[in-house]
Sequence to fold (169 residues):
Amino acid sequence: MFIYPEKRRSRKHPTETGSSPYYHRSDCLICRKQDGQGHEEAPPPGGYIVEGKQFLVEHAPLKLSNAGTVIVESRRHLLDFGEMTSAESAELGSILKRLVAALKITTGAHRIYFLALMERVPHFHLWLVPKKKQGSLRGVAYLARRPVPASSSAAEAISREIRRRIERS
Ligand SMILES: [Zn+2]
Fold:
């Protein structure tokens, strides 16, 4: 797809905020939340589970998730895997390896579902949804169901436990 350089520059340049190398954007919900400026997004229950150089991991918003559903998000404003630097790809791989193992043990899930659409907010964020063996719904039908909202205390406890396992791994 061809993008006019002028248009691209005028759309991007004035909205970049924060210090290098994060290149946050003032019109992005996730960038504003990371900078502590978002009003729409509450802080993650239990705090960040992982604070990497390039990525953060937090519990998913309570209304939208069962306890144990977590979100991995880039610190830098980027859309998807194709825009990551080698350092970002390497750190993401390393975080996912430890996080998936910790999530499975902590939640008793036999699968971890991955979901990254970036339709509502064009900033890389990957949902990790633990799925237990029991239950009739599977696959996309499971993801599309209305989740039982997580309680704040359950989300905090599970976040603590995941953090503890990752730090030991
Ligand atoms: Zn952003």
Q: What stands out?
A: Residues 24-25, 28, 30-31, 77, 123 surround zinc ion (CB under 6 Å).
